[in-house]
Design brief:
Strand content: 25-35%
EC number: 5.4.99.-
Number of domains: 3
CATH superfamily of the largest domain: Pseudouridine synthase
Enzyme class: isomerase
CATH architecture of the largest domain: 2-Layer Sandwich
Radius of gyration: 23 Å
Keywords: Isomerase, RNA-binding
CATH class of the largest domain: Alpha Beta
Shape: elongated
CATH topology of the largest domain: Pseudouridine synthase
Organism: Paenibacillus brasilensis
Family: Belongs to the pseudouridine synthase RluA family.
Number of strands: 16
Length: 316
């Protein structure tokens, strides 16, 4: 049983190229996946016929790759509701809720987004393997992309490595940055005092976050962020580094020295049960169609409530 084929039509300027070159350079298929496709009866087809990848192609030829369907037998299906932003034969894009882990890990084998997605697919009689293209922290909400086959997963992963996947976040923070917009270029590594935490350190891994002040109030700000790298807890670490920790962030909270500011911080953190961080927008090129798609997730209720509270405090 196969997935729907990925199709590529040979344009006139590519006549005479090797099929192998088309697969690697035009369809962006990895050598590992090509080797796997060659082992299946209908893995690589040219004009409906199985051929060697050393053949030369002609203008108008139809190249198809077909992948055998896989199942997530290691994930227990559970009826866990989730919000779908987009779905087709190749992609599932969801608006992840706060408090849910993306994929089963040690100690968390059930109750994850993966458990819910696998149950949803099975209830529709569909067979896919759960392949998240990226991760969001357990308490971070927003756009999350799941690939339905290895080709799509590999293709989007390479877009992410090349920096062509545009990921945007919204955060509510204590205080406000000194500049209206800027960049936080701070290498990140594990905190030697606590391996669960990250910190900015000169010997860390390169990490760059772009930010823009979208709205400011007396006790906090709304910040738009764009990741130029993907380090663990990057936004949380970088915002704390510039003196604007995320509201509700218990791991990277900063306690001000003066009593008034300390009380203000504690009051806001008490009203926000998690770090106020939301993956609001993601843009990528669809691996099967070549179309650039952008997905949006509205601000979740808890952050919208906190935003309203900050606005009202300023008016008072």
């Amino acid at each position: 049983m196969y997935y729907e084929p990925i199709v590529y039509m040979i344009p006139p300027e590519e006549e005479g190229m090797l099929l192998k070159t088309i697969l690697q350079k035009r369809m962006n298929i990895s050598r590992k996946l090509i080797s796997k496709l060659k082992l299946t009866e209908q893995g690589i087809m040219l004009n409906g016929t199985r051929v060697y990848i050393s053949v030369k192609v002609k203008a108008g030829d139809r190249v198809e790759i077909r992948m055998e369907r896989e199942r997530s037998d290691d994930i227990l299906p559970e009826p866990i509701p989730f919000d779908i932003l987009y779905e087709d034969e190749h992609l599932l894009v969801v608006n992840k809720a706060a408090g849910i882990i993306v994929h089963p890990t040690h100690g968390h084998y059930t109750g994850t987004l993966a458990n819910g997605v696998v149950h949803y697919w099975q209830s529709k009689g569909e067979l896919f393997r759960f392949r998240p293209v990226h991760r969001l922290d357990q308490e971070t909400t927003g756009v999350l992309v799941v690939a339905k086959n290895p080709y799509v997963h590999q293709h989007i992963s390479e877009q992410m490595i090349a920096g062509t996947v545009d990921k945007r976040y919204t955060a509510l923070v204590h205080g406000r940055p000194e500049q209206q917009e800027g960049r936080v270029d701070g290498p990140i590594d594990r905190n030697p005092d606590d391996p669960h935490l990250r910190m900015v350190t000169p010997n860390g891994y390169p990490a760059l976050t772009l930010y823009k002040l979208e709205e400011a109030w007396d006790e906090g700000s709304r910040i738009g962020l764009k990741l130029e790298s993907g380090r663990t807890h990057q936004i949380r670490v970088h915002m704390t580094y510039i003196g604007c920790p995320l509201i509700g962030d218990k791991m990277y909270r900063v306690i001000p020295d003066d009593a008034a500011s300390r009380e203000q911080y504690e009051q806001l953190d008490a009203r926000m049960p998690r770090q106020a961080l939301h993956a609001s927008e993601l843009s990528l090129v669809h691996p099967a169609t070549g179309e650039r798609l952008t997905f949006y997730a509205p601000l979740p209720a808890d952050m919208a409530e906190m935003q309203g509270l900050l606005r009202n405090k300023m008016e008072d």
